[in-house]
């Protein structure tokens, strides 16, 4: 099979990366996608770098065995843990990672107050320290880990208003929302909470995520390499795999994709 005909592999610690897959599909519906959720090992955010790297290596090996033309690490945590290592292992494969969208949140402005919601792992890694150091001289940046927001998505409890609102309130409580300019959704699971967050914080705070930017980046990379399928009326297929290998998690994945 020639590269252009191959699928794009997208993975995450679980179901969060489906929010990225949605964006990819809406930008490039003509492509085929393989999605791998590692729900049996989620959350990644509280694991060690070695543990996360081991899982990501085997997911990439699975993608290679299926013959993909590119890999999207639809997970900020996995990207901080091992994007470099995966690129070294597969030098010919385009691998796109993600980082909390702090740059678009600040957007060249000064004296911004930005709250970054991400996993514990992402926020304590050197990669994030480096990203912060580019912006924290001129701006005030707060960081908040939110493990319950990962658990609720994985448990299929996004519609459980009471649990969702109590978790969101707990994580926002320490901050003065009157002064906040933007909130960065620095974990792909959190993108599913946009509307609930909007209801809690009102209209004056921007909610920023990196999903659309990541999808555009993937498209550019495929175009540069001449392996992006031409837009057509034919819609590509999406195959979903999950390390839990249970019908319920595959069903939940489909529901999130169509949400
Ligand atoms: N969705 C992941 C991210 O973007 C991580 C969630 C987790 O497994 O802790 O960081």
Automatic annotation (TrEMBL):
<keyword id="KW-0961">Cell wall biogenesis/degradation</keyword>
<protein>
    <recommendedName>
        <fullName>Glutamate racemase</fullName>
        <ecNumber>5.1.1.3</ecNumber>
    </recommendedName>
</protein>
<dbReference type="GO" id="GO:0008881">
    <property type="term" value="F:glutamate racemase activity"/>
</dbReference>
<comment type="function">
    <text>Provides the (R)-glutamate required for cell wall biosynthesis.</text>
</comment>
<feature type="active site" description="Proton donor/acceptor">
    <location>
        <position position="75"/>
    </location>
</feature>
<dbReference type="Pfam" id="PF01177">
    <property type="entry name" value="Asp_Glu_race"/>
</dbReference>
<feature type="binding site">
    <location>
        <begin position="44"/>
        <end position="45"/>
    </location>
    <ligand>
        <name>substrate</name>
    </ligand>
</feature>
<feature type="binding site">
    <location>
        <begin position="188"/>
        <end position="189"/>
    </location>
    <ligand>
        <name>substrate</name>
    </ligand>
</feature>
<feature type="binding site">
    <location>
        <begin position="12"/>
        <end position="13"/>
    </location>
    <ligand>
        <name>substrate</name>
    </ligand>
</feature>
<comment type="pathway">
    <text>Cell wall biogenesis; peptidoglycan biosynthesis.</text>
</comment>
<keyword id="KW-0573">Peptidoglycan synthesis</keyword>
<dbReference type="InterPro" id="IPR001920">
    <property type="entry name" value="Asp/Glu_race"/>
</dbReference>
<dbReference type="GO" id="GO:0071555">
    <property type="term" value="P:cell wall organization"/>
</dbReference>
<dbReference type="InterPro" id="IPR018187">
    <property type="entry name" value="Asp/Glu_racemase_AS_1"/>
</dbReference>
<dbReference type="InterPro" id="IPR004391">
    <property type="entry name" value="Glu_race"/>
</dbReference>
<keyword id="KW-0413">Isomerase</keyword>
<feature type="active site" description="Proton donor/acceptor">
    <location>
        <position position="187"/>
    </location>
</feature>
<comment type="similarity">
    <text>Belongs to the aspartate/glutamate racemases family.</text>
</comment>
<dbReference type="InterPro" id="IPR015942">
    <property type="entry name" value="Asp/Glu/hydantoin_racemase"/>
</dbReference>
<feature type="binding site">
    <location>
        <begin position="76"/>
        <end position="77"/>
    </location>
    <ligand>
        <name>substrate</name>
    </ligand>
</feature>
<keyword id="KW-0133">Cell shape</keyword>
<dbReference type="GO" id="GO:0009252">
    <property type="term" value="P:peptidoglycan biosynthetic process"/>
</dbReference>
<dbReference type="GO" id="GO:0008360">
    <property type="term" value="P:regulation of cell shape"/>
</dbReference>
């Amino acid at each position: 099979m020639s590269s252009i005909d191959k699928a794009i592999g997208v993975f995450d610690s679980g179901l969060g990366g489906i929010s990225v897959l949605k964006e990819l599909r809406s930008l490039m519906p003509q492509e085929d996608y393989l999605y791998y959720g590692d729900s049996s090992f989620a959350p990644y955010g509280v694991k060690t770098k070695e543990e996360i790297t081991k899982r990501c290596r085997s997911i990439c090996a699975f993608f290679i065995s299926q013959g993909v033309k590119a890999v999207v690490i639809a997970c900020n945590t996995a990207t901080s843990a091992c994007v470099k290592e995966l690129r070294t292992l597969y030098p010919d494969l385009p691998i796109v990672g993600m980082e909390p969208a702090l740059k678009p949140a600040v957007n060249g402005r000064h004296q911004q107050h930005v709250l970054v919601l991400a996993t514990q792992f992402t926020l304590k890694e050197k990669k994030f320290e480096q990203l912060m150091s580019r912006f924290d001289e001129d701006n005030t940046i707060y960081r908040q880990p939110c493990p319950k927001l990962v658990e609720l998505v994985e448990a299929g409890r996004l519609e459980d208003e009471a649990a969702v609102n109590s978790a969101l309130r707990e994580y926002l409580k320490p901050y003065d929302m009157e002064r906040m300019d933007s909130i960065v959704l620095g974990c792909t699971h959190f993108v599913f909470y946009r509307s609930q967050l909007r209801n809690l914080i009102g209209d004056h705070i921007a909610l920023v995520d990196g999903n659309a930017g990541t999808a555009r980046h993937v498209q550019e990379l495929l175009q540069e390499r001449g392996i992006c399928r031409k837009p057509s009326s034919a819609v590509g297929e999406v195959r979903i795999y999950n390390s839990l290998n249970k019908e319920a998690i595959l069903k939940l994945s489909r529901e999130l994709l169509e949400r």
